[in-house]
Amino acid sequence: MPSGHELRKILDRSGILVLPGVYDCLSAKLAEQLGFEIVFTSGFGISASTLGRPDYGFLTATEMLYSVGRIAQSINIPLVADIDTGYGNPLNVIRTVTDAVNLGVAGVILEDQEWPKKCGHYQGKRVIPMAEQVEKIRAAVHARADSGLVIIGRTDALAPLGLAEAIRRGRAYYEAGADVVFIEAPQSVEDLKAIASAFPDVPLFANAIEGGKTPFLTGSQLQELGFKIVVFPLSGLFAATHAITACLRQLKEQGTTTGFSNLVSFPEFEQIIEVPKYRQLEQEYSISPSPNP
Fold first, then answer.
1. Fewer CB within 10 A of the terminal residue: the chain, N end or C end?
2. Peptide bond before 116: cis, by omega within 30 degrees of 0?
3. Which one of 3.10.20.310, 3.20.20.60, 3.30.565.10, 3.10.105.10 gives the CATH number of domain 4-240?
4. Which three-class secondary structure state does DSSP give residue 126?
5. Is the pTM for the entire model greater than 0.90?
């Protein structure tokens, strides 16, 4: 299972890393089979797919880790997981990070919102004092031990407190041991440039959401600005929602899916979930019938 050390090797390469958002084992396997080297799970995607609820702090730590752990164990590439606020104080962060490492997670995002948190592109966010988040970052560094877990320090302070405060917090989280800085929801290219200028030697993380608050730029455009990682956390979820809706609408209206073009075939799906591998294992460990009953 890939570790944080393997993720760090990928981060050391030149150029920006483009990460797809996945929300279950199937979407993760598809990303891996298409050649992505790293995948990302968002709280938004996990909440929507497992609870059918918005990213409003409904997910518990147990629910998040259960989903993320299954995803991490279904693939052979590093997984970066959004673990929200760490689900409590520094002791809770230690528990959450320890569990994430044991489940095979290679990187985590730890944010400074008050609990219950909200999606970073929603209104009404509130943040805890910077000093409290610094201690939570330090606790996460302690908990990762020698796993190499990559810690992404996220601040949501831009909306409630302004860009200058968000930059100040980003610096403090990096100094506390975060490996990557993530200032959530900048609302203009000028904001993105200011963030990049403030962190010339620090790996920076960008969040690309279709219809979100941040200008929707390409990976190459963000690289030119000075960012190291960009995630497209909801693209797959939005695409799947559109496709499922269209399929079920036809089934409802016509009583059949005949003629619906956006379907993989049964054999194609079997390849995606590795049915041939398990058939071979089944044959290898099955009991041969005795010639004399």
1. C
2. yes
3. 3.20.20.60
4. coil
5. yes
Amino acid at the residue 110: L
Q: Which amino acid is at 38?
A: I
DSSP at 35? T
Tracing tokens 């203009």 back to the chain, one arrives at: 188
Contact 219, 238 (CB under 8 A): no
The C-alpha angle with vertex 93 and arms to 66 and 79, in degrees rounded to 5, equals 45
Q: Letter for the amino acid at 280?
A: Q
- The DSSP letter of residue 127 is B
User: Tokens 């393997």 map to which residue?
Assistant: 6
Pair of tokens at residue 123: 């209104």
Helix (H) or strand (E) holding 229: strand 229-232
Report the C-alpha gap between 214 and 231 in whole angstroms: 12
- CA–CA dist 232, 207 (Å, integer): 7
pLDDT digits (tens, 9 = 90+) for 90-125: 999 999 999 999 999 999 999 999 999 988 898 889
| C-beta separation of 148 from 4 below 8 A | yes
DSSP per-residue letters across 74-137: T-SS-EEEE-TT-SSSHHHHHHHHHHHHHTT--EEEEE-BPSSP--TTSS---B--HHHHHHHH
